Inverse folding.
């Protein structure tokens, strides 16, 4: 047989396999057990069939939640850790779909539950991200997976849960060994994330556990900074009352006083001052509390600052007074009170 004939024969075989494997995969998707196992008996290599995205027969069997089909396929000794083009294994699929029966069957078949996708996600991380509580519980309590596994960004299951505001899962993870001091690659801790998201229940729990309250992320922001910046007043007060520093500054020199003035939060400003904050605070651009309040049009804050001795004439690094900033932003309600 010459080379051209061999090539033609190879192409025909390839097309036949593609056609057959497609029919095989479709039969799984349609729960057609009779056809699936008839085809497997005729061609055992179909157990390794994949679609264009790299999904295998096991991926589809798990996705269809067909236990009998999955049991039958597992008896054919397939690769239980087969990964699709995105790096997801059948265990990932089962975890995200809350298919605990499939997780049990894969566990009994020896599946690797620490396997990572292309983005570094394990079945546990995937389950948390999809709010699949039953999967999380099975993976933690039965499989005993690592609760502190990290993805490519350094995020843990706990950080995932807090980021997605899945309070019940977050508290469950904390109760079952999640390390609440671990940070992601940007220096974001669970407490920082919880304060930013306004998750009071998680913040209270972490404070009770003595989580580092002043942990600064890579840009110098603290949990208190973000609680104030995002208007989470109850959390800001809780952090202050439990020892959060009101004088720590971020990379730009912004501290709790400046954040409170920028956001027009007078009750928090008063709280910060009560716990040692300074009205003489300035950021790296020499902007004072009055500059921030004036720029954002916060009349009650401006009035409070002036009544407590704030200097109208201080200029920032650009030579601008609080009045100049109010004028630039057209905050006309402040013109008279700020005019030198």
């Amino acid at each position: 047989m010459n080379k051209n004939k061999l090539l033609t024969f190879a192409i025909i075989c390839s097309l036949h396999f593609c056609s057959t494997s497609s029919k095989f995969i479709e039969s799984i998707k349609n729960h057609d057990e009779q056809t699936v196992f008839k085809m497997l008996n005729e061609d055992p290599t179909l157990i390794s069939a994949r679609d264009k995205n790299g999904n295998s027969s096991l991926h589809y069997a798990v996705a269809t939640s067909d236990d009998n089909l999955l049991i039958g396929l597992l008896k054919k000794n397939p690769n239980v850790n087969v990964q699709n083009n995105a790096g997801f294994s059948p265990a990932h699929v089962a975890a995200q779909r809350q298919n605990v029966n499939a997780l049990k069957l894969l566990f009994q078949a020896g599946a690797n539950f620490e396997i990572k996708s292309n983005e570094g996600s394990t079945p546990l991380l995937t389950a948390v991200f999809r709010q699949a509580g039953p999967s999380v519980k099975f993976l933690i309590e039965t499989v005993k997976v690592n609760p502190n596994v990290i993805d490519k960004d350094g995020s843990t299951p706990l950080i995932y849960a807090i980021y997605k505001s899945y309070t019940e899962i977050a508290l469950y993870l904390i109760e079952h060994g999640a390390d609440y001091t671990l940070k992601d690659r940007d220096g974001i801790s669970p407490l920082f994330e919880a304060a930013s998201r306004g998750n009071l229940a998680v913040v209270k729990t972490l404070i009770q556990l003595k989580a580092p309250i002043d942990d600064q992320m890579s840009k110098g922001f603290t949990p208190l900074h973000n609680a104030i910046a995002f208007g989470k007043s109850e959390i800001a007060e809780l952090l202050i009352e439990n020892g959060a520093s009101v004088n720590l500054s971020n990379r730009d020199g912004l501290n709790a006083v400046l954040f409170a003035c920028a956001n027009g939060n007078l009750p928090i400003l008063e709280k910060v001052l009560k716990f040692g904050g300074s009205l003489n605070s300035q950021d790296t651009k020499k902007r004072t509390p009055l500059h921030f309040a004036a720029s954002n049009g916060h009349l009650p804050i401006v009035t409070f600052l002036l009544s407590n001795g704030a200097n109208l004439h201080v200029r920032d690094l650009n030579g601008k007074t609080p009045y100049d900033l109010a004028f630039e932003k057209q905050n006309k309600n402040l013109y008279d009170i700020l005019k030198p």
Observations:
- The longest helix spans residues 3-29.
- Confidence is low (pLDDT under 50) at residues 1-17.
